[in-house]
Amino acid sequence: MKSKVLTIGLIDQYRLRIPNEIADPFATAKQNRVKVKASFDNTEIKFYAALKKDKKSDTYTIMFGKRYQTELGVFQNDYFEIQLFEDTSKYGVEMPEELDAVLLSDYDAYQIFESLTAGKKRSIIYTIIRIKSSQSRIDKAIIMCDNLKRGITKPMELFKPN
Predict the structure, then answer these.
(1) Which of these, 49, 74, 77, 76, lies nearest to 63 by C-alpha position?
(2) How much of the chain exceeds pLDDT 70, in percent?
(3) pTM over 0.70
């Protein structure tokens, strides 16, 4: 499933309003997480987002934070194109190769990881994704696995070596 391409701008500092005719098919299919392709001035980015319905205004929004704004090169009053796609990923975000490999090599940590809430799994994945070096990603993933096996699940402590 995918939407048509639409031209859009920020409705406030961090949100995009998605027209109901675009969002309704995703909501009807219970796809509250979507993959987004945004483009502006020959720059294109892809990211995952939650499609949220504002009950007061009966409209849908997605978050479009400063990191994505900077990456795409847009400012508050710019208009750019986006297209929504069905999220077919297991976790609502692409799993980094390094984290996947470490989890596959440590079955106990993998089982604990899988028992976490979907949001906590995404948080762990996003933390690993932000690390630039592949070796550093592996090192942090190993620390995270060790901490999970020790019963540590608080985000602030999960990536600290013991």
Answers:
(1) 49
(2) 100
(3) yes
